[in-house]
Amino acid sequence: MFEVYSLTGMAAHLIILLLFSVLKGVHSITTVSKVSVEAGKSISIPCLYESQYINHVKYLCEGYYWNFCRYAVKTNKADPSGKYSISDDKNQKVFTVTINQLAHKNTDYWCAVEINGEVDDKQYFQLSVTTGTPSLYVDHQRITGYIGKSITIRCHHSNSGEMKWCRLGRNCVTGSSGSIDGTTLTAHMRDPNVFTVTMSGLKSEDSGWYWCAKGDIQIPVYLTVTEKPNTIMISTASTVSRTTHTVAGSETIIKMEQWNNSTVVENKENRVSFDPMILIIPLSVLIWIVIVVLLIWFILRRKQSKADSSVTPTAEEEIIYSDVRPKKRSLAKVDKEVTYSEVRPKEKSSAKRSFAESEMEILYSSVVTKQRMERGDGKDTGVTLEHIS
User: Fold this and answer.
1) What is the torsional sign of CA 163, 165, 168, 172?
2) How many whole angstroms from its chain centre is CA 284?
């Protein structure tokens, strides 16, 4: 009986040890194993933990050997140098460490959780730091998708090995199609050295950490799935009302709601497509025609102004005639006299004349008295007037 009891006790003890080791494995931390990154850049590494560790202190330990690694940063103590930072998402049960300004050397780290009275739980990963392009990288380590829509991730690689897309702590897809947590996934390698992954029909539950793998290298990617941004929250007074405005001539509908000190403005997408080029081309032609017409009008106006300014009014000249009669003289004495009469044109003050027109023409006239034979009637001789011009 004693031997049977001893065997039973030993079996129970072994069962307890086995259960403890299994539970210890369940509670372990999950992270990537090896990440390639360029020197001088930054990298964020996610560390997934179990719900038992939600309220525990998490930290990053630097060093290849666990017993000799040193604290880099802890959730209850910030790094004063700024090289490391750490954040804990207790809803996702993931703490994330970010390492800045990486030096050109391979660095070994541990994601760890403090456990009071026991050995801390930990998981090792390595950073392969290169001077040039990393052997595996993505365009953006943090991306955003919208509920019900699709998103595409491009994983650039230069190493060999199997390609796969995984969710941290969940399953992986290695072929050209599959699903992760009910979300459809397709993958292809049509472009050289690019592994393209498309996730369709996104849900809010799809938010979280994923990683792309090629051979033994991984690169983590954080996906945020949210509603498409078509609402704007505006703080207002505490009233309850609903107003709907419809803009005439379009399909745009704006709805405003006031509820609990907030106003929600919803702008539905315009379902009618409109090409602005339809209006741009006719407007451009019209503007060009107007410019040409104005240019022609300006040229004609300028020519007309020059023609008007070149015309000068001619001065009207008046000629004053004078009547010259000889003086009566006695028959006994007949003298020959010459009388000159000067005729000048009358100047007009209103007309402007050119240099050629300003020269006034002078007319001279002479009166010559000729002696005639004395007539028997005793009358004086006649006078002949000669006009010389």
Assistant:
1) negative
2) 24
CB 107 within 8 A of CB 62: yes
| Main-chain dihedrals φ then ψ at residue 379, nearest 5 degrees | -85, 160
Structure tokens at 161: 């090995």
Q: Tell me, what's the pLDDT at 336?
A: 47
CA-based max dimension of the chain? 211
Q: How far apart are CA 102 and CA 278, in angstroms?
A: 53
One-letter amino acid at 268 equals K
For residues 297 and 304, the answer to whether their CB atoms sit within 8 Å is no
Could you list the beta-strand ranges (E) of 14-162: 34-38, 43-48, 58-62, 70-74, 84-89, 94-99, 107-113, 121-130, 136-138, 142-146, 151-157
Query: 110: buried, middle or exposed (CB in 10 Å: 19+, 13-18, 0-12)?
Result: buried
Q: What is the mean pLDDT of residues 314-321?
A: 49
DSSP single-letter state for residue 333: -
Cβ atoms of 140 and 156 closer than 8 Å: no
- E strands along 189-267, which residues? 194-200, 208-214, 217-226, 231-235, 241-246, 253-259, 262-267
Question: What is the gyration radius of the CA atoms in the chain, in angstroms?
Answer: 56
Q: How far apart are CA 178 and CA 172, in angstroms?
A: 9
Instruction: Please write the tens of the pLDDT for every residue from 261-317.
Output: 444 444 444 444 556 667 888 888 999 899 999 999 989 988 888 777 765 554 444
Instruction: Check whether 187 has a pLDDT greater than 60.
Output: yes
CB count within 10 Å of CB 157 equals: 22
Strand-pair partners of 34 = 126
| Per-residue b or e along 29-66, where b marks 16 or more CB atoms closer than 10 Å to that residue's CB | bbbbebbbbbeeeebbbbbbbbeebeebbbbbbeeeee
Is the pLDDT higher at 317 or at 144? 144
Q: Write down the pLDDT at residue 190.
A: 85
Q: How far apart are CA 350 and CA 315, in angstroms?
A: 9
Higher pLDDT, 336 or 297: 297
Cβ-Cβ contacts under 8 Å for 69 (sequence gap 6 or more): 61, 62, 63, 108, 109, 110
